[in-house]
Amino acid sequence: METQFNPMQALKRRFFAMRNGVIADTLRRAGSPFHVIFGLNLPQIVEIAAEVPADDAPALAEALWANNGTRESMLIAPMLMPRDAVDAARAERMMREAPCAEVADVLCHRLLRHLPFAAELAARLTDDPGDNVRYAALRLMFNIAASHPDQAIAMARAELGRDCARNRAIAQGLLDEAEWIKSRQ
To answer: Cβ distance 125 to 133 under 8 Å?
Structure first.
């Protein structure tokens, strides 16, 4: 008799089978906020996400995002989340819930940049008091800077004016990219 696993169990079994202790230990030593780290790299996570049946993806994405103590759960959730299931309030909530830069990067690149309100969302969070939230807003804008260079320049300059060490590099990179885009128009 063959054991049947629910979609979450099957996914976690894949994480376990591909675990990498060296990467997991490195992330822990670097201060990763997660209790459970399997040590998968992004191409492995993308591969696993591609194998999830479309029917399972919406509920699984929600459950994985709620599993905020596991690194790989939070990284794969935006890859599975149907775009039409994310309204502006949900997108903002997810940006606020992203516990670290890695999750914010994947969230913005894999999901939020494709939403029609992405630029408005990034602009709304530009002045947020939280460094992590502003980081996520900058990352989102970085993904859509080609179509919003003036807004990207304004956001980057505002962040550079805050002199937030954590966000300085991303703000400077965004400014450089947006100014280059403007110079090519």
So the answer is: yes
Q: Which residues lie below 8 Å from residue 70, measured CB to CB, with a gap of 6+?
A: 34, 35, 36, 37, 38
Q: How many residues does the chain have?
A: 185
Burial of 98 (0-12, 13-18, 19+ CB in 10 A): buried
Q: Which residues contact 76 (CB under 8 A, 6 or more apart)?
A: 11, 45, 48, 49, 64
Q: What are phi and psi of 126, to 5 degrees?
A: -60, -35
Distance CA(15)–CA(1), nearest Å, equals 24
pLDDT in tens, 39-56: 999 999 999 999 999 999
Residue 90 has a pLDDT of 97
The answer for residues whose C-beta is within 8 angstroms of residue 125's C-beta and 6 or more apart is 92, 95, 133, 134, 136, 137
Q: Are 69 and 36 in contact (CB under 8 A)?
A: yes
| CA-to-CA separations, 18 to 33, 71, 105, 182, in angstroms, rounded | 21, 14, 22, 43
